[in-house]
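dumping these here so i dont lose them again. two proteins, back to back, each one seq then structure tokens. dont judge the mess
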Amino acid sequence: MDQMKIGKFISACRKEQGLTQAVLAEKLGVSDRAVSKWENGKNMPDVSIIPELCALLKIDLNELFAGERISMENYKETAEKNMLEMRKQEEAANKRLLNAERIMGNIAIIASLIMVTAGLLVAESHPIVTIVLCAAGGLLVIIYAFYGVKIEHDAGYYECPECGERYVPDSYWKVVFAPHVDTTRRMTCPKCGKRAWQKKVLTKK
């Protein structure tokens, strides 16, 4: 994927529609600096706003990722190439999120253990300090658990072993209260309705 080519294409399409960077940014709910970075090839638009961006620029997804208008003769080939590229990007983004969750978990657990250990070491001479440190250590784990599960819920999909459906649970709390081993959770599939151990996967297909 050629980010410079895509950036120039976004710029050209924006101008065709008579939009300034500031106006386009406002319509998309981003900063004009973000639009400038797209057009300079430094960043790509977030996946969540790409459909709206395409609608504003009067282009389709395949043309955006190709960085040019696509003729009907080349449309199928370009579409398949772009879908593959999008899948790779989604997989990489979800992998980064899940890795970040694991790193956060390790840091939270280590920091909590250090606090509790330090608190126990000074228990006899400073009981109040012990209480504060142990409470802080416990609170740190609770905070991590809340954000860690949120990251896991949002990153990737759960795959039903019964019917193969890949989905994002419609409720954060379904993930919170599901028995789990690492990122594999026992939940009910919204398609087949069977309860089984749902494995976390990075892409929809």
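---- next one ----
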Amino acid sequence: MNKIRLAVLISGRGSNMESLLRACAAPDFPAEVAVVVANRPDAAGLAKARDYGIPTDIVDHKQYAGRPAFEAALQQTLSRHAPLDLICLAGFMRVLTADFVNQWPGRMINIHPSLLPEYKGLDTHARALADGKVETGCTVHYVIPAMDEGPVIVQRRVPILPDDSADTLAARVLLEEHQAYPAAVRIVAARLQELGDA
């Protein structure tokens, strides 16, 4: 099987990254992780990636004077692991500029803890509870320059229970995220292979 090569970008614990690593361990999964890159040296997901034998890199945003310099370093780091077919943002807590995003058209995806287009940005679970919603979920979508705006690839729905807090809701949504992200990568891999781009 011709597997597409992923770069996974993280900022923290890397639980969605780990769901992708587990999926990629299956022989019939159409992708492999080529590198995990963190923008924080203390990101716990780096150790998890190394446990799976995956190369890791750090591009610490605090070491750069501004966003363009950070993104240039990030792009240079990714180029060292070429060829790369798809960038997967997995809890990557940096907003990327159009200049960076447009270098990866149709080749960058993100997972977001709401049913987009509802609740773009942060604090999605608390906002859904405050609005009295009866369900929420997660979305995997293509990344475009506008934040949380790209075309949807996969959504998974989660009922909101009467006694839910933001934390209990987040925990249940996270379980669905771990299913949704590998499913989305499978879909995107098939699209890229159909186009002959991978």
